[in-house]
Amino acid sequence: MRERIDRIKNAAEGHWPEIFASVGMDAALFQRQNRPCPLCGGRDRFSFFAKEVGGRWYCRGCGMGDGIKLVQQFTKKEFVQTLVHLETLLGLPVPKGKQGRYERSAVARHKLWAEKQRAEQSALWEKAFPLGEIDRQTPVWRYLCARGLGDLVPSRELRFVKKLACWEVPDGQNIDGAAKARLVGEFPAMLARLTNAEGKFITLHRTYLTADGSKAPVHSAKKLAAGAVENGVIRLYPAGGVVCLAEGIETALSVHALTGLPAWSVVSLPGMKRFGPETIPDGVRTIRICGDNDRSYAGAAGAYELASRLRRSRPELEVSVHIPQAAGTDWNDVLLAHGMLKL
């Protein structure tokens, strides 16, 4: 059992925030300390220690534990079921024997659930409106225009739905209709399509909006739909010889507006950390990593760490890192302040 647990922890290292998000926890809870607790609901008592191994966390009300314990307590599964769930997410083998037969059954159920989730998200995408086919007065275009992005050629990886349900648990964290969740409301939403290294659909990112194009009044207006932990990216514009990588969707769009270069969003800082070199298509010779200048320096650190990995694994690529000069800003702030740049 100890070897099994260690195998899970080793595979999950660096991916715990995405694993937590995949079971319904808000990814924002793991970006800094003194956040709301996903277990007890305390507003500022939970801290996740990203630099420690095993997914360590501490809550002044719930105590402490590792990533496996947090997933088990949040999902209210038995310990073995939690191990099976994590092995399934991480693509690890499930033990054989009598216990293994039970666990393989759980794996099969999870795969069915994952396929159902993927099919539902794919169907939602097909019903949504491409941005190039809708009026500029719709909430999604008002949202983009407010960020200086109204003149862009619409990305084919972004769409709009007039009404999408948003679920919230009592302590304010959004999850997709899980137990004890309540319907907060239905809002207009911008959808973004995440694909894997082969270009296959994984899931959707959603930004909930109001009629005037502001972010919806919910705890987390931006969230990923439920799905497996994979190296997904939003390929906002087709790759050429150069591809720019940025965290958020609006940041990547801003990089495209600033430079005219193809830009992709990795969704978040954890997405930057898990971006794999296999995602870069043949023909790309240059990668520009456009990180955020967070006051915590986490965005810049993630950008330089990715650059180091790419240089080691793909030495034929020209890789550079670009960070806004002012602390606490990202590339959308630069766009709004200065306009066109040359990287």
UniProtKB/TrEMBL annotation:
Keywords: DNA replication, DNA-directed RNA polymerase, Nucleotidyltransferase, Primosome, Transcription, Transferase. It comes from the Bacteria. Residues 32-68 form the DNA primase/helicase Gp4 N-terminal Bacteriophage T7-like domain. GO terms for cellular component: DNA-directed RNA polymerase complex; primosome complex. One of its GO terms (molecular function) is DNA binding. Pfam families: DUF7146 (PF23639), Toprim_3 (PF13362), Zn_Ribbon_Prim (PF08273). SMART domains: Prim_Zn_Ribbon. Transmembrane segments: none annotated. GO terms for biological process: DNA replication, synthesis of primer. InterPro entries: DNA_primase_Znf_CHC2 (IPR036977), DUF7146 (IPR055570), Phage_T7_Gp4_N (IPR013237), TOPRIM_DnaG/twinkle (IPR034154), TOPRIM_dom (IPR006171). This is DNA primase/helicase Gp4 N-terminal Bacteriophage T7-like domain-containing protein. It comes from Sutterella wadsworthensis HGA0223.
